[in-house]
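Entry 14. Ran structure prediction on the chain below.
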Amino acid sequence: MDPKTTVTVNDMTCGHCVGTVRGALEEALPGARIEIDLATHKVSFTGDKAKGEAAIRDAGYTPEP
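Output, structure tokens:
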């Protein structure tokens, strides 16, 4: 099983942001399990940590450990 990465994305503030982040992760990591909790700004995903964080950054957001 792939390791799970959880990052905080404080600049993800609405449902549209969630959709953008989810779409970026789905494109970068096909088949990854993605969980997003807008209330806590937590994003969890399986697969390549660096690739996932880069996808979030490329979508215009700031992943923090």
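The chain has two helices and three strands. Will compare against last week's run tomorrow.
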